[in-house]
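Students often ask why we bother encoding 3D structure as a string. The short answer is that it lets us treat folding as translation between two languages. Here is a chain of 268 residues written in the first language.
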Amino acid sequence: MGHIQAENLTLGYSSKKVIQGIDLNIQKGEFLSIIGPSGVGKSTLLMGFNATTSILGGNLNILGTNLGTIRYKELKVLRAKIGVIFQGFNLVSRLSVLDNIASGMLHRKPLLSSIIRHYSSQEYEEIYEYMKVVGIEQEALSRCDRLSGGQKQRVAIARAIAQRPEIILADEPISSLDPVSARSVLETLKNANEKYGITVVSNLHQLDYAREFCSRVIGLNGGRIVYDGPPDQLSPATVSQIYHKEHTDHNADICFSSPFASASLLPA
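And here it is in the second language, the structure alphabet:
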């Protein structure tokens, strides 16, 4: 069974259908990008993998768990296995790089140790490893509000890795970055993907980056998959079909600030 499996899946909000009747199977260790014009449902699909959008039809299984029947306690356990990276970074600005990365461990630390930010020697070693993986160890004690955008996103990636996730969902992780920083962030994600075997699913607007870094591309338009395959087989005709504007819905993508925003959408 794949890490992510969708069968005739329809996602949306209330009665509004955004993703319509798609089939998808994402295997462990893939680095996959969802591409397409703005408003076609890329974020809706991505965050559906974290149970943040409603299932209006079909089936969705994440890490062997059926999201259509999942209970809240089961959801908390599942989300601990899914790291989420947002374009807005979602860091605590006044805290150091080290403390922000360590926050990814909160689900597996005693409450008191988390509150007082006490780390064991083993945890310090682990945090330092993650800092080295993303190339931010020289800024370990710097406050995050003093970092560049690219540095902040690398901290966000390290925090996600600190969860020890099986899947990372990256929602437009480079949209606010300059080209040099964008490339550095994608190289960091690719490094994490290869080093830890984490399945990475990312939304990207930049087709060139998807071609360079991803092992697989999903082309989305009109709420449906119009391409699913390796990036080197994307023909000009297929690219034109993916980015054709006629069927886009500019209200389809919603920016999420928290992976826990829509727990109320789930069955009790």
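Translate back mentally: Confidence is low (pLDDT under 50) at residues 247-268. Keep this in mind for the problem set.
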